[in-house]
Amino acid sequence: MPALTAAVAGVTVTFGGAASIGQLAGVRVDGHGYAYRTIATDTPASVAANIATLARAGGIVTLAQTTLTFHGAGDVLARVVADAPAVMELRRQVQGFRIICWCPTPLLRDAVAAAIDTSLAAMRFIALPDGSAARLIFSGNAVLDQSQDAILYRRDLIYTVEYATTVTALQPSMLFGSLDLNAANFIE
Predict the structure, then answer these.
(1) Do residue 68 and residue 98 come from a single domain?
(2) Considering its fold, how many domains does the chain have in total?
(3) 125-154 pLDDT, tens per residue?
(4) pTM above 0.85, yes or no
(5) pLDDT tens digit string along 57-69?
(6) Is residue 113 domain-shared with residue 61, that is, in the same domain?
(7) Which domain holds residue 131?
């Protein structure tokens, strides 16, 4: 979502908000487009000044701080768009893990394992730091009581997590243009 704004009133465009990297500001005047990609040091006033410089090749433009006026223009449209992340899945991976419950009695072992299993059964997916999700799959359990002499009873809950390996790239957004979709033409 762009932080920079552009407001049109007749033949006047006023920029506001905050300019930052990854935004594209543009003005279309009577079918001619003028676009400027923002940099880290930009402000709404510098964006307006850069667009004014570009637009002066097509007509008379006056600049007053963050406001542009296109004298003699019939149709003025202004937009600001921001680059958007696109995620592509490269492959799926599966990682297994065990939750091991060591308890002093078989009854306590079964109660602890049941509580953990019930909590995890309610979770179909686990949120990952990159914004994607991993699928949690119950794979089985194992009861191992060979340590009875040490008064330790064990139950393993076995799960797998299926997740994607992804790559993310920033994609530019369309500022002005036309789109043909099923023989219908949309122009903006």
Answers:
(1) no
(2) 2
(3) 999 887 889 999 998 888 887 766 678 889
(4) no
(5) 878 888 889 998 8
(6) no
(7) 87-169
Amino acid in position 31: G
Residues 124 and 165 in one domain: yes
Tokens of 118: 């019930």
Could you tell me if 151 and 183 lie in one domain? Answer: no
Residue at token pair 């009875």: 148
Residues 105, 110, 113, 118, CA torsion sign: negative
